[in-house]
Amino acid sequence: MLTPVPESINFAEEEVKIHELWQRLDAFKTSLKQSAQRPRYVFFDGPPFATGLPHYGHILTSTIKDIIPRWAHMSGHHVERRFGWDTHGLPVEFEIDKALGITGPDDVHRMGIRAYNDECRKIVMRYASEWRQIITRMGRWIDFDNDYKTLYPTYMESVWWVFKQLVNKGLVYRGVKVMPYSSACNTPLSNFESGQNYKEVVDPSVIVTFPLDDEPDVALVAWTTTPWTLPSNLCLCVHPDLDYVKVKDHKLDKVFVLMEARLVSLYKKPEEYTVLERFKGQTLRHRKYRPLFPYFEHLRTAGAFIVCCDTYVTADSGTGVVQCAPYFGEDDYRVALANGVIKRDGEVVCPLDANCRFVAPVTEYLGQYVKDADKEIIKRLKTMGRLVNSSTVKHSYPYCWRSETPLIYRAVPSWFVRVEQYSQQLLESNASTYWVPDFVKEKRFGNWLREARDWSVSRNRYWGTPIPLWVSADGEEVVCVGSIEELERLSGQKVTDLHRENVDDIKIPSQTGRGFLTRTTEVFDCWFESGSMPYAQSHYPFENRKLFEDNFPADFVAEGVDQTRGWFYTLVVLGTLLFGKPPFKNLICNGLVLAADGQKMSKSKKNYPDPMNVVDKYGADALRLYLINSPIVRAENLRFREEGVRDILKDVFLPWYNAYRFLVQNIEWFEKQNNGMKFTYDSALVNQCDNVMDKWISSFTQSLVRFVKKEMNAYRLYTVVPRLIKFVDNLTNWFVRMNRKRLKGEEGREDTNKALHTLYSVLMTMIEVMASFTPFLTEHMYQNLKRLNPGKDVAESVHYLLHSPVRDELIDETVERQVSRMQTVVEVGRVLRDRRTLPLKYPLPDVVVVSKDETILADVQTLERYIMNELNVRKVIVTTEKEKYGVQLKAEPDIKALGLRLRNESKAVIQAIRALTDADLQRYQNSPDGFQVAGHALEAGDIRVQYTFGGDMAAELSDQYEAESDGQILVLLNIKPDSGMQDEGVAREIINRIQKLRKKAQLVPSDEVVVHYGVDAVKSADLARVITQFNEFIANTLKAPLKPMPVTEGWHLVIADQQTIKDEAIDFEIVSRDQRLANAGAAIDTAVKTPDAKDSATKTAGAADKSGKGAGDTKLTNGLPVKSGGATKPAKTSSNKQSGDSGSGGMVSEPPFCKYLNIELCNKEGKCDRKATVLLENPVGDYITSGEELASNIRVAFGLNSKLLLFETRDKRNAIDLNSYNTGLNLYNDFNGRTVYAFEH
């Protein structure tokens, strides 16, 4: 038996109930047991750190990582999903260093590595419970109990195995390289880590002199932004092929040498210097100069302090003379090595400690941090007379991603993995993978692989997997250990854990008579550990060998775009070097989630809403759908707006839920009307449906299923939601609305049964398709609707189902085309009604559809009865003869805009625009881009195309018809109703008012009520006449008797109200014999009818809790919280006129009940000559206007066809995005009564 569906729903609360259901069913584990024998779909989960709480970026990737495995499971696969944790490395150590005040290695050694690592171990899972709670609340099914952690000995042992394979392949070496180094963390970073965090900084900019030995009065001048490197300067570098000059400086009376193209770096005017000589840079090769500082003077005999040549020197900045400190710059090192200034086994000139403070022999700045020493060095240069110029420069500089301190490029001994020589193999591996979006693979990631450098995998730290290399004292004997068993065998000691405190003291006897080998002190870069995840999570090759090898590479991985230089990179490098292939086949790369202002989300700035608060308000499903329906799943950035999540409820979930509720209510009504006959779903009956709308919605649904399956196979999540929104619109605003009578049983039991079957089939199909995207809402609906399925093996959860195949037999492209054209006619007709303010309740004589395409007209004729119903017209006329109705296109130029842009030529263009023929304007409408008039391409807004009527009957036709087109379809609406049509419109108005009153009383169709009315037969004779004449029509529509007052005994009042229709008062009372309905209605009616307006508004909100409306300062509209705006509105009582009353006439002295927006239409100069007002809601608190609807209403108000741009100010500041989901609610909340400015685009 179906559970009755309430009028409203709190999605977040229902999700909690669904989560409790999953726990009772042990749903995730049950689904895995059910799929155990299916083919495997392998998913690798990149491990996050648990030292911080999950943010929107984590929630986004978790959503993607949930949707794809769920879809794969429902597609017939077994998908193991294990959560992973990155527990080692700088993120953990940095937290401990801050907490304990540790500033360097000495502090750690005084404390002891064991004690230090114990502190690290305590915090690695600091927020694990919060992670589990949040990720689970988001609906993600993943195994937290059988997780993997990089600190597990089994994981670390597999990392050792990976490294040993690289050693055995000859891919590991120890070397000294200039690398980005974190002074705060006392460790080098890999090249991809250093690219993660660039900042705009202001650094010193100095130009200093280097006198030549053989010409002491001539000095090369070099520029640097790192004065702290000057004490370690060993050579200079110039470009061999560019022109250099020797100049006399008139002000300083000195002779300088610099690049001719860079004279601007020293001089503003040519008069400030005289060129003495001009020559190529190679002329300076190997000339010697006097160093700035004496600390390394002894290296002169070894080849230091000479001028070198290299083409890396550019003419873009500086002086064209580069000062080189070889151990503080990659190019400096390369050039110095190539020119014999330094040797690989020579003295390393890097006078810094682990914290980047100067050490001996740089005694003048002993103990100073390099950046702090800049000022003192500049002072010293000035005293020495070697400083030519000192200023500052703003530029982009890399910072440590963990400590937020500037990176220092310095020579560091490290263990490297050879990557550069395998660049081509890496590119081939990348080519064999599939990425969404593809451009990240080809551009960003591909370029990174092309420039791949050898990977420094060692870190001078403590909390990490130790590098398993045991080395002799002379460095000649090196043993790489690849397992715990091997270490025990070589050392003779028992090993249970592989962290430094447990293995550092283990010694291995030398096999070559060198005593004992000791372990090198470094640990692995944590990126090496996470890149080993495909192997280490399964303890490969020590366990699960066959299982791993049968399922490698993985089918799917996903992370953010920042991981192109992180996890994605390390995965591909290790997979290629170990196995010759990438470790994954398919990859989704998402962008970054930013705050609404485009800035990085910041806890200190509080510039984003708490994720769990958003989930508690709107539900996890809404947040999931909002995130994947954004550019972020195409690797673009998303400016997060809470209103966007709310719009998912308004635009998708509420209409979807209402269609589901409508189905359940009408099944209950069907069973009641047919003497308790139970509705049981029979899929075969759907095939037998011959109603065109049944066939259409079934076809559209199956086409959508086919589309979604195709897109999911291509991992394009972002294409699904727009089609879902279109489906929801078609389902609720077309199928359900156009088939209400059928679904309510007004066209016979058999037809109703078919219509209900169609709606049930469509909803269940979409529940199944969308289960991976919105797991909570689909489960909520499924749990109720599954009861109508007679099968014995009905799954307990929608997530146990397998995807049904596309029912091709239900797809009818002809019907879909016919309905699409019918929708076009109806939508254009509605625009025409709106333009003339003709409510749909009032019938009109006819609508004329004009097209040159006979197929279009045939399609329209096939469905003309639906057009008649939807537009409320008596007749549909189709014709190919536009001329018969005298319809012509007319172009009106924007004279001011054209005059400003074209000046003297504008007059000819304006005349040419006015001379455009009907055929010309039709071509313009079909393809406006690049359309030329009098040799000039028109821009948006240059002309306004209008429909006019010509010929002898122009005036009569213009008065009778309103015209508008869409593509190849022209629609003419006859706007002249007769008196009988006017009366029917009033009857429909009465029905509308009563239905709204029933809704306010929370009545459902199956509630038996009687409606009584009271009207003054003398003062309101016309209204009384219409009620009498159309009584049967009104009663049949309401499915309730309509009787005059008074109410007889035995009936209980449910709700009463007085309305005004056509300026005539009418009282309504809805009564029932059911006391329960009367009590519920009385509570609502009492809350509304309070004398104090402010108190009334508060009580009304509070009294409506069971309908999903909340109390306090926030009222709820269709389940959506909406801010109270501006002054309190008067409560609607019996004395208030409804703002929507047709024919109320006259000006209203008080502001409208509905929120509204004033629009001024401006030309390009911002001058406004036309004004209009549009409603932001109608009625009060309901049907809030969306951005697209607002744009349409503005176009109707001004009679425009072109696109619009909307701004808060006349000078085009603060644009309003009319295409955004959340625009309508933003305006509703913040712009009531304000004026905005529209410009044609």
From TrEMBL:
> Residue limits of the Methionyl/Valyl/Leucyl/Isoleucyl-tRNA synthetase anticodon-binding domain?
694-844
Subcellular location(s): the record lists: Cytoplasm, Cytosol
- What's its top-level EC category? ligase
Entry's Gene Ontology molecular function annotations? aminoacyl-tRNA deacylase activity; ATP binding; isoleucine-tRNA ligase activity; tRNA binding
Which stretches of sequence are listed as region Disordered?
1089-1146
Q: Where is the Aminoacyl-tRNA synthetase class Ia domain?
A: 18-638
Name the InterPro entries on file: aa-tRNA-synth_I_CS, aa-tRNA-synth_Ia, Anticodon_Ile_ABEc, Ile-tRNA-ligase, Ile-tRNA-ligase_type2, M/V/L/I-tRNA-synth_anticd-bd, Rossmann-like_a/b/a_fold, tRNAsynth_Ia_anticodon-bd
Recorded coiled-coil stretches: none
Q: Please report the stretch or stretches of sequence annotated as the Isoleucine--tRNA ligase cytoplasmic ubiquitin-like domain.
A: 1152-1216
Alphabetized SUPFAM superfamilies for the sequence? Anticodon-binding domain of a subclass of class I aminoacyl-tRNA synthetases (SSF47323), Nucleotidylyl transferase (SSF52374), ValRS/IleRS/LeuRS editing domain (SSF50677)
Q: What EC number(s) does the entry state?
A: 6.1.1.5
> Its quaternary structure?
Part of a multisubunit complex that groups tRNA ligases for Arg (RARS1), Asp (DARS1), Gln (QARS1), Ile (IARS1), Leu (LARS1), Lys (KARS1), Met (MARS1) the bifunctional ligase for Glu and Pro (EPRS1) and the auxiliary subunits AIMP1/p43, AIMP2/p38 and EEF1E1/p18.
Task performed by this protein: Catalyzes the specific attachment of an amino acid to its cognate tRNA in a 2 step reaction: the amino acid (AA) is first activated by ATP to form AA-AMP and then transferred to the acceptor end of the tRNA.
Q: What is this protein called?
A: Isoleucine--tRNA ligase, cytoplasmic
